[in-house]
Write a structure and sequence with these properties.
The complex is a heterodimer of chains A (about 170) and B (about 350). Chain A contains three helices and no strands. Chain A has one domain. With about 350 residues, chain B is mainly alpha-helical. Chain B has two domains: about 70 residues, no CATH class; about 220 residues, no CATH class. Chain B is about 60% helix and about 10% strand. Chain B is built from eleven helices and ten strands. In chain B, the strands form four sheets. Chain B has a three-stranded antiparallel β-sheet, with no helix packed on it. In chain B, strands 5-6-7 form a three-stranded antiparallel β-sheet, with no helix packed on it. A two-stranded antiparallel ribbon of chain B has the order 1-2. Chain B is globular, with a radius of gyration of 24 Å. The termini of chain B are far apart. In chain B, about 35% of the residues are buried. About 0% of the residues of chain B have low confidence. Classes of the chains: A mainly alpha (about 170), B mainly alpha (about 350).
Chain lengths: ~170, ~350
């Protein structure tokens, strides 16, 4: 202990205290503070960059899934539209067919009716004409035949025959 | 292996073996003097010195400043390495065991305190150690200011910063934050980083063949640990003192018993800190120099070679110790700071 104390040099103690305190204060101001803040700043930057990259990655993933979602929805919508179109087409075609058939039937019936009418008309006309002709012929024949008795009789017979034939 | 690598290896080996050179010159002069001479040499080397011995007979005189009923000043060369009694301002002084002692003209001490002669009141000479401390201060400021400037230009470390940054981060992440906590560590970083690098660099300089032993001086370690103590006191919160005088969570009789023990602990902690650093570095130097001295004792070249190898190995260990002691000093300082800045709500977790 005595040697230990004997070795203690007050001068050296004073110098060490003054020099080291000066050094520590100077270094604190001019070295440690800028160094530590720079290191901190860099660490923060790195952390931010990592966080940013992670966020971007997450966003990308989200976007990708969103895109897929949109794509899937679009596909579904397309299917629905196609289906609807197909149904619409079918119904339109069906409707057209039905109406066409109806129309055709109606036209046909009309035609039949009109044919019938025409026929009746024609028959009537024919009958009228035949009657007129008959009368004319009858007049002519009667005019001629009545002059001759025999011939009149014969005509009468023929006419009767004709009528019967008719 | 490239030539550059070989050169590096060679210079490293030279550096590690260089302490042997300390004796080489000395040995030539006193080849036949015995163990006592060597012991004296080692002892002399471990102490601070009033002049800077470089190699052989070359040494740099340093200013001697002291107070002995008034300020006196001279250059250390007047003492001729402690062999001569010098007359300074009309009084006579000599240097013995790195202490300035007032004497009469023939060199007899003026007063005796028991076995020891009375020294001058305060010897504040720029001794060898002071020169080394100054050098380290300038070196550290230059290094770390450069490092800070590097960061101002670019956040990516370059050159010296590349080497020192992991150490700075080591002090922050492994020493300061675990012991003090995320919240308070910042205000201690200046001291912790300074003390860590100061001790480490000065320990490393102590391993050079210049034969410097700064941290093996009790005055140096005392100054450093007192700073730790003062910073602990200055930044202490009420919880720190509560733990000393009125330990929470123990019965009252125990509180009374614990108070003086804890109070003693406050003094013992920095004392252990100063002794640990001092003893480790000093012991390392003594062992290393003793091994080298043994090398000169043996006539057998085989034994010389064996001790050369041993000294090489010990030097490597000393490299580790240089770092380890810096780490331990800083770590324990941080631990004390952590106790000082601890806050109330931590109490329950600890007891």
């Amino acid at each position: 202990m005595e040697t230990l104390l004997g070795e203690f040099s007050t001068g050296l103690f004073i110098w060490q205290t003054i020099l080291f305190l000066g050094l520590a204060i100077l270094l604190r101001k001019f070295a440690w503070k800028p160094i530590l803040s720079a290191v901190n700043e860099r660490e923060e930057k790195i952390q931010n960059a990592i966080d940013g990259a992670k966020a971007a990655e997450a966003k990308m993933e989200q976007l990708t899934s969103q895109n897929e979602q949109i794509l899937r929805e679009a596909r579904e919508e397309r299917d629905i539209i196609l289906k609807e179109a197909r149904t619409a087409k079918d119904s339109i075609v069906g409707d057209a067919k039905t109406s066409a058939k109806k129309e055709a039937t109606k036209i046909l019936e009309d035609a039949k009716k009109s044919i019938e009418n025409e026929k009746q008309k024609a028959i009537t006309e024919l009958k009228n004409q035949v009657a007129a002709l008959s009368i004319e012929i009858s007049e002519k024949i009667l005019g001629h035949e009545l002059a001759d008795k025999n011939k009149q009789q014969a005509l009468m017979d023929t006419l009767v025959d004709d009528v019967n034939l008719n | 292996m490239s030539i550059k690598k070989l050169t590096h290896l060679f210079s490293l080996a030279l550096l590690l073996l260089a302490p042997a050179g300390l004796f080489a010159s000395e040995n030539a002069a006193h080849s036949d003097n015995g163990a006592a001479e060597r012991k004296e040499y080692i002892k002399h080397h471990l102490l601070d010195n009033h002049d800077f011995h470089i190699i052989g007979n070359i040494s740099m005189p340093l200013p001697v400043l002291f107070w002995d009923q008034g300020a006196h000043m001279a250059m250390s060369s007047v003492f001729e390495h402690g062999t001569k009694v010098a007359e300074i301002d009309g009084k006579f002084y000599k240097i013995e065991h790195a202490k300035i002692i007032p004497t009469d003209a023939s060199g007899t001490p003026l007063e005796m305190h028991g076995e020891h002669p009375r020294e001058v009141a305060i010897d504040y000479s720029i001794t060898k150690n002071v020169v080394v401390i100054m050098f380290v201060c300038v070196l550290m400021f230059w290094l770390f200011r450069g490092m800070a400037k590097n960061y101002q230009q670019d956040l990516v470390p370059k050159g010296a910063a590349k080497f020192f940054e992991p150490l700075v981060l080591f002090v922050r992440d492994e020493i300061a934050i675990p012991n003090i906590g995320e919240k308070h560590y910042k205000k201690y970083m200046g001291f912790l980083l300074s003390v860590f690098f100061f001790i480490w660099i000065i320990n490393l300089i102590g391993l050079t063949p210049l034969g410097i032993n700064v941290t093996g001086n009790i005055a140096i370690t005392a100054a450093l640990s007192l700073m730790t103590l003062f910073i602990t006191f200055y930044t202490s919160k009420s919880t720190y003192w509560a733990h000393i005088f009125w330990m929470p969570g123990v019965p009252v009789p125990m509180k009374i018993i614990l108070a003086p023990i804890e109070l003693l602990g406050v003094i013992i902690k920095p004392f252990a800190l100063l002794i640990r650093l001092y003893a480790n570095i000093k012991a390392g130097h003594i062992v290393l120099m003793s091994i080298i001295a043994i090398m000169y004792l043996f006539e057998n070249w085989g034994a010389k070679g064996a001790f050369l190898g041993l000294s090489f190995f010990l030097n490597l260990i000393e490299l580790l110790v240089a770092f380890l002691q810096a780490y331990i000093f800083t770590m324990l300082s941080a631990l004390y700071f952590g106790a000082a800045s601890e806050e109330r709500h931590h109490e329950e977790a600890h007891h």
